[in-house]
Write a structure and sequence with these properties.
single chain, mainly alpha, Membrane-bound Lytic Murein Transglycosylase D, Chain A, two-stranded antiparallel ribbon, 12 helices, about 0% strand
Length: about 300
């Protein structure tokens, strides 16, 4: 009997877990230790029934102490992970996540609010779960924002280049290059909106490549003085074929129509004479001014492959 009671008392002593040892100031633990001492004294005095009863009470209090310690540890863990979650939110906010990834950032702040509410209601497991959701949701946000900023920089360069191309009439003078650049810029914009930043960068670069051939040039001439060229006299067909005129001999009727009224023989388009000033009307909105100067270098009038 004495050996059995001794074993019971010993088990009661062992019941206090290692976690409880770190929080010896809780009332449950202190009461459990008091009861252990009383049980030992009763045992030493031969009061075995009383020792057993006290040992059982000590075991109950030490069990409550374990529960209390476990709760405190969960509270401490929840507090720490909530602090980490708050730090992640603050850092994400500082680098523009609230604007650049608004949906992700809002979800994170909502999860954090839920976590603090759970903590206040002592639902520490719920608080920990919500805090972890914040951390997972903002995982890699620095890299994503870096990719966002990088793609935005390339996109800004592509937009700027397109604005410049518009200002130098690239749509008229370099139609194929301009059409390609327009398509690539649209793809870059869409990819950026979809957060496909690498793809957006590739399309932005393609804009720059397409517009690399575009040059700012002097306006094409608005007038041409008919020349006497032995063996190759000027006529509307040849004039229309000049690169600085229409770069296309088939457009000679436009020259004829624009100059017919001042011709000596208006009913015969073949009869034009050296010294005649031929007006060159715009055929596709190209800017023209002044009279053709042999000493200037003009960009040939470009035609889109679609219109050839």
């Amino acid at each position: 009997m004495k050996k059995i009671i001794s074993t019971i008392v010993l088990c009661a002593f062992i019941a206090a877990s290692a976690m409880a040892q770190s929080l010896l100031d809780n009332g449950y633990y202190q009461r459990g230790i008091e009861l252990q001492t009383q049980s030992q004294n009763a045992f030493d005095s031969g009061e075995y029934d009383q020792a057993t009863e006290l040992a059982d009470q000590a075991k109950q209090y030490l069990g409550l102490s374990d529960q209390y310690v476990e709760k405190m540890l969960r509270m401490d863990a929840a507090k720490k992970i909530l602090a980490v979650a708050k730090d992640r939110i603050d850092k994400a906010d500082s680098i523009g996540a609230a604007t650049k990834f608004a949906d992700v950032f809002k979800t994170a702040t909502d999860d954090y609010a839920q976590g603090t509410a759970s903590f206040d209601s002592q639902d520490f497991d719920g608080a920990t779960s919500s805090a972890q959701a914040v951390i997972d949701g903002l995982s890699g946000i620095e890299d994503r924002i870096a990719a966002y900023d990088n793609a935005l920089e390339y996109l800004a360069q592509a937009r700027q280049r397109m604005d410049w191309a518009n200002s130098v009439k690239a749509k008229l003078n370099y139609p194929d290059a301009f059409d390609t650049a327009t398509t690539e810029l649209s793809k870059a914009e869409s990819a950026f909106t979809d957060a496909s930043f690498d793809e957006s960068i590739d399309h932005s670069k393609a804009v720059m490549v397409a517009l690399a051939v575009v040059q700012e040039t002097i306006p094409l001439p608005a007038y041409y003085v008919v020349r006497r060229i032995p063996g190759k006299e000027d006529c509307y067909w040849r004039i229309a074929a000049y690169p600085f005129v229409y770069n296309n001999p088939l457009l000679w009727p436009k020259l004829y129509a624009a100059n017919k009224a001042k011709m000596k023989h208006p009913d015969n388009p073949n009869l034009i004479y050296p010294g005649m000033i031929v007006k060159i009307p715009s055929v596709k909105g190209e800017v023209r001014e002044g009279t053709w100067d042999a000493g200037k270098t003009y960009l040939p009038l470009q035609w889109s492959k679609k219109t050839k």
